[in-house]
Design brief:
The complex is a heterodimer of chains A (about 220) and B (about 220). Chain A has about 220 residues and is mainly α. Chain A contains ten helices and no strands. In chain A, helix 2 runs parallel beside helix 6. The longest helix of chain B is centred in the last third of the chain and has 16 residues. Classes of the chains: A mainly alpha (about 220), B alpha/beta (about 220). At the A-B interface, helix 1 and helix 5 of A face helix 2 of B.
């Protein structure tokens, strides 16, 4: 527990000191939605009911582009190696980073979500459901992005490679996440998508920890 | 406590760096690794510290009495690599506080300033790392040795970038560690003017062992 606390303190402190780059990520999210609104037109978005889908796409891209910064600097300045030598397991590092990413990136997006949703003409009750869907799917999305980041760092590949690598695995989350509101209001099993999102997380967590162990070993080699 | 390296073979990038290397390192002994660039000095240090798995052979710790093999624990060593493991956007004191927390040590501001005085960098406590020169960064990372109580120090080019007086201070620190029954494994490109008990010349694949460390040779410090 002491190890977890000290590592969490480190991650929170570093993220707190690095808020400017996190603000840039949030600006990317907001600007992306603005560009969509301008290019498609506010009325068309409401008419076609694609507001949630736009938010989900921007949310996923913001996450994919931001997760790397939580690992890359640590890898380049040798801190990742130092953490391993200080006895921190790859599992603990991944879990702590996931928590940090959630607090410093996902939580602000969730705060922005209602305002952005209203701008895009999403109904209030649908906004609540989408908030829960994003809340439940975000840990899986972070973990999948971490897998991609560890693989691309190790092979010196670009962020485009990361996106290509991870997107196929993100599609199921996207399908059940975007469809959460529709299922909730129209299906006989309203919580079905939520349970599926939780199940995806329960599969993604051990998978990420397993891949993480291999990736950390390779990074040190 | 004896660190035993038993017939190890290390392969990196499909190339065997060395084969059948055996060595015992007891307390108050120094192992000096020499060899040209890319010969495998860092790989050997990483194998000893547990970051790199040898292809064959084993590295373990035994004690004098029981002679029981003890699994190599990364936390038994202090490893100081090429990288400074310092966060550029944090100040000197913030970096050391975080590092101390990760090691489970409580380091107060006064305590850290006291340690920084050893390398005469106590005036830099509130300067961000990115504003420091390479030599100053090296001194900050060497200051970690002053907090450390582990018996085995593994140091990869610790004096690179250091001026003459700082190198002398570092050698004094090394001397006091060895006098306190600590062991040191060190690589350096320059002649450090120490007489190690063991020398491994990786160019010649040759191990030279002297039984006792002669402190008289260090009297100039």
């Amino acid at each position: 527990m002491r190890k977890f606390k000290s590592l969490l303190f480190r991650e929170f402190f570093l993220s707190f000191k690095n808020t400017h780059s996190l603000i840039i990520c949030l600006l990317f999210f907001v600007l992306g939605i603005t560009i969509f609104t301008i290019s498609i037109g506010g009325a068309s978005i409401t008419e076609l009911n694609i507001g949630s889908s736009i938010i989900w796409v921007l949310f996923i891209f913001t996450l994919l582009l931001s997760v790397e910064q939580f690992f890359l600097k640590d890898h380049l300045d040798g801190s990742l190696k130092e953490l391993v030598l200080l006895g921190f397991s790859s599992d603990l590092i991944i879990i702590t980073k996931t928590l940090t990413i959630w607090v410093f990136l996902i939580f602000p997006i969730l705060l922005f979500f209602p305002f952005v949703g209203i701008v895009l003409g999403i109904k209030l009750k649908e906004i609540y459901i989408q908030l829960i869907a994003i809340f439940l799917s975000s840990p899986s999305l972070i973990l999948l992005s971490i897998i991609g980041t560890l693989v691309t760092i190790q092979s010196n590949s670009s962020k485009i490679m990361l996106t290509i690598l991870i997107l196929p695995f993100i599609i199921p989350i996207l399908i059940f996440g975007v469809g959460a509101a529709e299922t909730f209001f129209e299906s006989t099993k309203p919580f079905q998508n939520f349970f599926i999102l939780i199940a995806i997380f329960l599969i993604t967590l051990p998978l990420t920890l397993f891949v993480g162990r291999i990736a950390f070993k390779e990074l040190n080699n | 406590m004896i660190l035993k390296i038993d017939s190890i073979c290390i392969r990196r990038n499909k190339k065997i760096l060395f084969d059948n290397l055996s060595l015992n390192l007891k307390k108050s002994q120094i192992l000096f690794l020499k060899g040209s660039n890319g010969i495998g000095k860092t790989s050997l240090l990483e194998a000893i510290s547990g970051l790199l798995n040898p292809e064959k052979g084993e590295i373990y710790i035994t004690d004098y009495l029981s002679r029981n093999k003890k699994k190599l624990d990364k936390r038994s060593f202090f490893y100081l690599g090429h990288d400074f493991c310092l966060k550029d956007n944090l100040t000197v004191i913030e970096n050391l506080i975080i590092w101390a927390k990760l090691c489970g040590k409580s380091a107060t501001k006064r305590n850290i300033i006291q340690k920084l005085k050893y390398f005469k960098i106590n005036n830099l406590i509130n300067i961000p790392i990115y504003k420091l020169s390479q030599g100053q960064k090296r001194k900050v990372s060497l200051c970690k040795l002053l907090f450390d109580s582990r018996k085995i120090w593994i140091l990869d080019e610790p004096t690179s970038g250091l001026d003459f007086s700082s190198t002398q201070n570092f050698l004094k620190l090394l001397k006091s560690h060895v006098k306190k029954e600590g062991s040191v494994i060190i690589t350096s490109h320059i002649d450090l003017n120490i007489k190690p008990t063991h020398t491994i010349d990786l160019n010649k694949q040759k191990v030279k062992i002297k039984s006792q460390l002669n402190f008289k040779t260090w009297n100039h410090l």
